[in-house]
Automatic annotation (TrEMBL):
SUPFAM superfamilies listed in its UniProt record: PurM C-terminal domain-like, PurM N-terminal domain-like
Domain PurM-like N-terminal stretches: 40-151
Full protein name: Hydrogenase expression/formation protein HypE
Protein family: Belongs to the HypE family.
Organism: Streptomyces meridianus
Lineage: Bacteria, Bacillati, Actinomycetota, Actinomycetes, Kitasatosporales
Amino acid sequence: MRDQPRIVMGHGGGGVLSGELVQHVFAPAFGGQVLSALADSATVTLGGTRLAFSTDTYVVRPLFFPGGSIGDLAVNGTVNDLAMSGARAAYLSCGFILEEGVEVELVAQVAEALGAAARAAGVEVATGDTKVVESGHGDGVYINTAGIGLVPDGVDIRPQRAVPGDVVIVSGDIGVHGVAVMSLREGLEFGTGIESDCAALGGLVESMLAVTPDLHVLRDPTRGGLAAALGEIASAAGVGVVLQERSVPVPDPVANACAVLGLDPLYVANEGKLVAFVPREHADAVLDAMRAHPLGARAAVIGECVDSHPGMVVARTGLGGTRVIDLPIGEQLPRIC
């Protein structure tokens, strides 16, 4: 924070700068025990009922991209944050921030996409708000959504529960969303079409919980990618994580695009994937259940949780060496979620 006295784009990238902003500015100002968990969604008890509660804001550019739109992101991102606590999303709020001069037809297209995504995810948009900012002070449409859902009895999923021996599973190919958005925005071609993996993961999580309610950690690796998600979990639980780099599913188009642009796929955002820390005795059954679901067909074991190098993620490379997977400082690809 001393090196960055003013807000820069990296403060919204899900890496070190984002974490420092939350830790040193927002958390001390807001206080509260619930917030201190810093999970994808907060788990609260209200009237004897356990609820998951989450909010997020979407500023993607362009508004429509291969495989989705800002409307899809606004629904699926919040539904997924709730699912990472084991909750089934029930209701969403929706706030539109519109730039003066944007076409009403474009706003209608975004709203239609959002409504269709909500129906597909089985949630209802129950309340909302609209604000307009002056021309030149936005990218046409920004959206904020908040969501609530019920947490089943016996489910306790949070970053602090990762323990040595846990098996790390990812639900499928990584890096797809970030490359899809970037390729359209920058007019780049990588030989084959790449579409965003944007999807609601509630059904996949339900299939995993049907195997065992004792899933230790779930996280959707959005901003900062898989690297940021694993780094945050390792830090929160005080454990080490070892990845087998060759086991991480990176599709060829993503690998090729990252090679051309000098990016590491581990740091590229996803919008329809999750990473799970599962007790070893349940790992095989959970993996089978994930692969039986359409959104987990390419699920793979990519590593394990260890008691050495606490708070650090390392990858074992195909050449037999190791490298440290640091948290990103800022963000590689602005405005992708």
